Amino acid sequence: MTEGTLIKVGMADLNIAEGGAVLKTTGLGSCVGLTLFDPDLRIGGMAHIMLPSSDIAREGQLNIAKYADTAVPELVNRLRSRGAAAHRLIAKMAGGAQMFAFMGGTDTMRIGPRNVEATKVELERFSIRLVSEDTGGNYGRTVELYSHNGIFLIRSVQHGVKEI
Amino acid sequence: MNLFRNNADFKLDVLREVGNIGAGNAATALSTLLNKPVDMAVPTVNLLPFEEIAERVGGSEAVVIAIFLRVEGDAPGNMFFIINREPARRILQGLLGFNAAENDEYSELELSALNEIGNILAGSYLSSLADFTGLRMSPTVPSLAVDMAGAILSYGLLQFGTMGDDALLIDTTFLEGQQEAEGHFFLIPDPESFEKLFRALGVPF
Predict the structure, then answer these.
(1) B49 lies in a domain?
(2) Which among A10, A29, A102 has CB closest to B151?
(3) Which of A15, A118, B63, B124 lies in disulfide reach of A68, CB 3.0 to 4.6 Å?
(4) A59-117 pLDDT, tens digit each
(5) B95 touches chain A (CB under 8 A)
(6) What is the pTM of this model?
(7) Could you confirm whether A31 is annotated as catalytic?
(8) Range of the domain at B41
(9) Contacts of B18 (CB under 8 A, 6+ apart)
(10) Is A51 in contact with B146 (Cβ distance < 8 A)?
């Protein structure tokens, strides 16, 4: 991979990048864009998580990138297999918005916050430090992770570009 | 989807007709509201990967105006009325009679007018569908967002999310005269609703 190569992560998808490549996922609404980064190896991973728990899955072939409880272990494994150490990994994440604010209560409507909560539970399980996040709100986000320095860029229509 | 193992073509035709009847009534309502002709294209019915659904309205990052509502009752689902900013401006101009939203900022009044348009159109879509199927279908209060298409539409895919990575979308495009696509009506019935729709319409399994 060469400097600046863009690796697109789709909805309910995950991937890793090194050698200066950039991971990008677009149009996060209630979904969570989670990134893990090993600063020593300069290798990073990104998952576009759609749902909190695979317990609710009714699909035949489980897409492990889709659920917080399966995507986080998979991302950690993929990074480990490239030499990253779990204790060095730092996490950043964005998304988990509530795009439409109405009707309050139902579980579907709270899916954004639930995705964020479930992702944090998984990070704790692996003792991975969450160093920064830009979650919640009622707006969409596009995010990028730069694998040479771990910078996490967040773009939104209302708030422009921000770096965490 | 298992549901389409038998009679797939016929079932897709039926769903196309569902879109035709619903959106046809909505187009009439919009035409009355704007006092000018509004045409619609033949609805398309596809089982699409999540990624491709936003492509229908310009891509995941394209900024669109979307009115979203849940369909409640016998055959629940999600409904979106999606328009780009330029046609929205023309609609507002026609309706409110003044030059609206030159920039990306919408006033309270403009947003409320767009929301009400969505409400009226969705109501006429659903009531004609309810008449046609004999099923009870009612819209929730609509909610409006101006944001990235991907972020907005993913909300309507959650029910399909637990089943796989595709969703069945009934997409109808509105045209105003010879203008490019004015807007889209997306109906995404919950996976469980198809059986009820087909039963109500006497489609054999």
Answers:
(1) yes
(2) A29
(3) A118
(4) 778 999 999 999 999 999 999 999 999 899 999 999 999 998 765 456 666 899 999 99
(5) no
(6) 0.90
(7) yes
(8) 6-200
(9) B129, B132, B133, B170, B187, B197
(10) no
Look up the CATH number of domain A6-163: 3.30.1330.200
CATH number at residue B45: 3.40.1550.10
Interface check for A15 against chain B (CB to CB < 8 A): the answer is: no
Question: What is the reported pLDDT for B90?
Answer: 80
CB of B158 within 8 Å of a chain A CB? The answer is: yes
* Mean pLDDT across A36-44: 96
Nearest-Å Rg of the Cα atoms of chain A is: 15
What b-and-e string marks burial along B102-112, b requiring 16 or more CB atoms within 10 Å of the CB?
eeeebeeebbe
Q: Kindly report the nearest CA distance between residue A150 and chain B, in angstroms.
A: 23
**Which chain A residues contact residue B140 at CB under 8 A?**
102-103
Length of chain A: 164
Residue B148 has its nearest CB partner, among A51, A58, A140, at: A140
Beta strands in B28-178 (DSSP E): 39-40, 44-49, 63-73, 77-83, 137-139, 143-148, 166-175
Tokens encoding A130:
């969450």
Interface of B with A in 7-36 (CB under 8 A): none
